[in-house]
Amino acid sequence: MAALTDLEPALTELGPSIAVRSEKAAVTWRPSRHARRLVTLAIAALLLAVISRRPELAGVAGPPLLLLGLGRVSRGGLEDQLEIRVGLTATRVYEGEPAGVDVTVAGGEHDARWVFEAGKGIEPTSATSVNGHAVRFTFTVDRWGKRKLGKVTLSLHDRWRLSEGRVAFTLPAIDVYPSPAVQRTQVVLSKLPNRLGEHRARVPGEGVEFTGVREFVPGDRQRAINWPATTRRGRLQVNTFAAERSQDVVLLVDATSDVGAPGESALDLALRGAAGAARAYLAGRDRVGVITYQWGGARWLAPSLGRRQEYKIIDVLIDADTGYTRGAVFSRLPRAALPPGSLVVVFSPLLDNRFVEALRDMRERGFALIVVDVLNAEPPRKRAFADSAARRVWHLEQQAIRFSLRELGVPVVTWDGKAPLDIPLAPLTRRPLVTRR
Amino acid sequence: MTQPAAPRPAAPRLISSAGPRLAALLLGAACVAWAATPLAYRGLAQTALFIAVVAVVAGGLRLALADIPQPDDYYLQSGYQRSWLVFLGLLRTWPWEEIVAVAALIVEVQHPARPWHTAALGAGLAAYLLVTHIAESNADPAPVLRRQVKLLAVGACLLALGAGFAMLPAAAPGAGAGLLRVLAAAAVIAATALVLPA
Q1: From A92, A136, A138, residue closest to B1, measured CB to CB
Q2: Is the ipTM of this complex over 0.85?
């Protein structure tokens, strides 16, 4: 029997992959359809030979019987177990990004046929096989979430194709991250916490951005002396610079309602927007945290720095569940997830009144809020008067919710999910966001 | 995230799978036509012929439509789609190839004894079943046939043996009958040599 280590060349030919499982699977052998047909042919020929007393019909039964007998004799060499290795080209992918799953089988020489039954939401694109022992199925996933890849069935045939063995094994799940929205600019608060960062603060400090010139006082660095100004004024002048600080950003994702077409629903847009914002703020050396607000409670991740935090944030995001849990009550968002003075970027369709109340509560507690409205669906148009009236009332309610938030000093911008996030946020990114209590 | 290797261009699967399917259909039709020639009008001949023709067509359709997936749930389908799925299910449930084999043999029996003709029908039916299996399992025909070439030769010998044995009482004593006996003995020896494990 060939071991998995003997199949290294086949794996090399397929390309790199991360081994996620290696196990022995039992093979179930049974007579193939071909064998059953041969039995039928032989029995029919023999019966007709006896009934019609014609020996040439017995001759017709000869080849099938010979083949079946040979298959019976050689059946002892069939293997009961196969060693299987399952590998993934990536354990995490973004929506629409191609990925592959490799399946390698170590065993005897058989005619093997692979069947990939893709799981829900998995779109198979191609399959590449190497000598029947290793195969790579490539696929894409169009929507975020934790997706089960499906099942692979390996059909084996013996030399005479009279016995058929089947091995079925379930493929692992894969994390599909929402495709992050494009965001290059950042909203920066006017009042930043006293922590080193990359945003220009209003207070003087040790940054690189020039703010002015003042008279030299003992203790100033010599390298900061502005010699042209010193020459003009006759006294030592030094350059002053703005301090560079970082901010705390909390992304608040409303997962209480998921309206719209799958793939472009409000929750899809909210997660993509949040992923894009997380990437943008983390790239600016800000501490970023996340809260997903959903039925049954809120999941949160305290603000932190770094690339690792981006993946941790998206892991929290893809756990967002819109499933309804009766009796869930939200009065306040968790304090531990909301450092004082942090910027809160909210992605919500603003359909749930309790969530809107939570936003008002946060605003009254002094947090700087920006709401990115991701509602891109509306009630269907119908001709009945009652329907159109209800639709107008619904529109008025939505306008009222947004108006009330703006009145509290919460900017509400609309994002359609296609344009970069920079466009709706442009009025807020041009200058520091001033927040008043 | 690691980008997977670019998939290599797939072989022209449609053409490669269409060949065995067409061959199976043609072989089935040829077997039925061979068994039915000349047309017999007695006994079960016409009924068996009709069943054989229907089974050949249904078997060909089953192979041709083998790649169409069948959904698990019928409830959300329209009436036309349900009818189509029921038809597909019928095609996939019935053992059409077995029906072809049995019906062709019954048609053959309706004719007067003709050993070599029957032997050729047996060879045709065995080939029809093998090609059908190759077509439905999407196997590469060349390696499968290469592995079974010895066995196919032995099968042909057995068929010749059967046909020769059937002709023995009718053959007049002389050089021809002697040659037939020698051929039959050679076929038996060849079959034994190939069947015994090495």
Answers
A1: A92
A2: no
